[in-house]
Design a protein that fits this description.
Two copies of one chain form a homodimer.
Chain A lengths: L1 E4 L3 H7 L11 H14 L1 H12 L10 H10 L2 H19 L8 E4 L2 E9 L2 E5 L8 H14 L3 E5 L10 H10 L3 E3 L3 H10 L9 E3 L4 H10 L5 E2 L7 E6 L5 H12 L6 E6 L2 H16 L4 H9 L2 E4 L3 H11 L3 E5 L15 E4 L5 H6 L25 E9 L1 H17 L3 H15 L2
Pathway (chains A, B): Amino-acid biosynthesis; L-histidine biosynthesis; L-histidine from 5-phospho-alpha-D-ribose 1-diphosphate: step 9/9
Protein name (chains A, B): Histidinol dehydrogenase
GO cellular component, one term (chains A, B): cytosol
Chain lengths: 429, 429
């Protein structure tokens, strides 16, 4: 971990820069697979599943029996843990439902918004060694609360054609309507285009490797929306003398274990605290199964000492972290200063892991600086907010003359006419 | 206008298809201009302004004096009309502010969201014959309510280097912080990259031609967000025996005058009403200054008769119109059936023009079928909603064991450790 003491404010911008990501040029491959899916449907999806996942699958759709059987394999204590997380995530996301508020902007002119679910959503869950069933909770629960009619899930099969049972159990628990044992570009292509067995969806959610990311970008050209731009996960921790350096080190490591390209930033108003955290980092790293990944990540990481905690928050706003932890007893006093972050963890017991799994907030968040302009996934991500207006004859008489003047000034005569013809008919009554 | 009587439900999907848009391949041009802006800043922007707009500008930024002088040129009645529209748009968008709701998902675990403005936003207003000052209202007002620090506006200059005074007046009225007399690819490039005089922004809003659209897409690669995918404007009108065919025809024409590629759909449960509207269309078209454009648009347009108004609403949901007018005295009884639209106009006096200018709703809406997954521009478009969590020691004791189990099952040992180290320290107290 690189230690930087009191950098001048001119250096902040460059300290905030993320390392350039290796660009993998897979556009052509994505186009080829999408084109084949468009032509051959399921057959193409199965072909590429054989090719990339080394799995021969007869049906892309996972059967109800297989899902039922998977649930039997999950230990009771893990089931209870997942259910506790589900309950918290449900409460928080249900609180994001918007109440209808009718605003009479002018007498006789009523405007309001109503939310409607996005009909069909697709959730992508990566495969590999770690089964990310927590992401099934984070995406499936708000989709269900929103009322999405079809909530389909794709996850790559292992060599025997199976999906990890914890993913299947969680999918069933949250009410996923169909699970497909497919992954990678071919899964995103199937969701974007549709096949004989796979629903074409309106929006695709979920994390993935560079192939999945490129495929999600390509899906945009098929009229499908996506959740967020992709990027490596990151945490920024602000510490003062009231933090516990061991806790802080553990939080930094929980981010570092995600991958060598994860971003970990430590800020403090105290060099002593910084050194204590760095020491704890070294000690704790030794015991980790993903030690090598962690060490690579820490090589790119920075510990920066600034004059005050206010400066630390200002630096953080410029960096725009996905996760921001304020490890301080007075964390709450800095909330109003925070302008840019994905999710914020206040105080010494609010660890990022809590938000990753079970506090109730969503863990699908803007990274790579996108917190400057994007929010994390929430109930809003699964609905459209439609505006309505109801204008009475009297209402149109109140605002009509203004509309006529503005439309005429924009040289849109037919826009003006739509008002004029109504006002005339009212004058003739 | 093509008339279709009682199409079978199998035909609905193809009836909903938009005509394919001519793809203009301007990617290379966009890349070239962006690269030059990155290298040469203002100089490159001025060069392309000379090239595309035939205007030699010394300063890209419009002076305070020029803005002041423009305001003097606007007639008093138009100023009052713009101010009435502003007041209504302000009221409706201010009502979209979210109240902070702290949810205690488990004792000791508090979660909430807080909105923060996107710091820097750019608004693009096209040039050409019609000065779209109404779009300045629709984008500038919510940006101001959100609290965006920098709200900059770009609009192409005329040959004398000037921007239409109505645009400048409205920009000043709503509190735009800087106006640049630049347009097209070079304006979007300047906003996405930044130059000596032009702020690099976090998000770009506003309509534009194919060059602007391509440039907005390219801006995404510079970490900048955009408002909505682009597409031609469209209206779908549902009519029954209680509609006024003259009003309906006027509404269809107000859409048709936008351009030959505008989409206009008429639905009814009555062939008689349909014929009456078509007749009124023919009569009203004759008097329009944009008659030729309107006639081209109507060639691509459809009038479809279905069995019931319920069927009409179902068809509309499939079509996903940008604007939906229900021209019926009982319009409100269909609101709950509507699942997909950008903005909805209820009853015989709620013309689309009202929402385009002055009712209070936003006129920047998802088109080309994107209403399936996108909402129109609202206050939400100018803020990030940051999640916060505050977990007490007792709170972590309540949810910590569940987090440990889930993290272990996902093979993320460091995630588990972040909880374990805290729980251990609490047990040792």
């Amino acid at each position: 971990m690189q230690k930087i003491i009191n950098p001048s404010i001119n250096q902040w911008q460059s300290l905030c820069e993320r390392p350039a990501l290796p660009q993998l040029d897979v556009q052509e491959l994505v186009q080829q697979i999408f084109t084949e899916i468009k032509r051959n449907g399921d057959e193409a999806v199965k072909k590429y599943t054989g090719f990339f996942d080394d799995a021969l699958i007869e049906n892309v759709k996972v059967s109800a029996e297989a899902i039922e059987a998977a649930a039997q394999q999950i230990p009771q204590d893990l089931k209870q843990a997942i259910q506790l997380a589900k309950s918290n995530i449900e409460q928080f996301h249900a609180s994001q439902q918007e109440q209808k508020k009718v605003i009479e902007t002018t007498p006789g002119v009523e405007c309001w918004r109503e939310s409607r679910p996005i009909d069909r959503v697709g959730i992508y869950i990566p495969g590999g060694s770690a089964p990310l069933f927590s992401t099934v909770l984070m995406l499936g629960i708000p989709a269900k609360i929103a009322g999405c009619k079809e909530i389909v899930l794709c996850s790559p099969p292992d060599k025997n054609g199976n999906i990890n049972p914890a993913i299947l159990y969680t999918a069933q628990l949250v009410g996923i309507t169909a699970v497909y044992a497919i992954g990678g570009i071919q899964a995103i292509g199937a969701l974007a285009i549709g096949t004989e067995s796979i629903t074409k969806v309106d929006k695709i959610f979920g994390p993935g490797n560079q192939y999945v990311t490129a495929a999600k970008q390509a899906a945009l050209n098929y009229g499908v929306a996506i959740d967020l731009p992709a990027g490596p996960s990151e945490v920024l921790v602000i510490t003062d003398a009231t933090c516990n350096p061991d806790f802080v080190a553990a939080d930094l490591l929980s981010q570092a274990e995600h991958g060598a390209d994860s971003q970990v930033i430590l800020l403090s108003d105290s060099e002593g605290v910084t050194d204590a955290v760095i020491k704890a980092l070294q000690q704790q790293t030794e015991a980790l199964p993903r030690k090598e990944t962690v060490l690579k990540c820490l090589q790119n990481s920075k510990a920066i000492v600034l004059a005050t905690i206010n400066d630390c928050v200002n630096f953080s706003n410029l960096y725009a972290p996905e996760h921001l932890i304020i490890a301080s007893d007075s964390a709450e006093s800095f909330v109003n200063l925070i302008t840019t972050a994905g999710s914020v963890f206040l105080g010494n017991y609010s660890c990022e892991s809590a938000g990753d799994y079970a506090s109730g907030t969503n863990h699908t968040l803007p990274t790579n600086g996108y917190a400057k302009s994007y929010s994390g996934v929430s109930l809003d991500s699964f609905v459209k907010k439609i505006t309505f207006q109801k204008i009475s004859a009297a209402g149109l008489q109140n605002i009509g003359p203004a509309i006529e003047l503005m439309a005429a000034a924009e040289q849109l005569q037919a826009h003006k006419n739509a008002v004029t013809i109504r006002l005339k008919s009212l004058n003739n009554v």
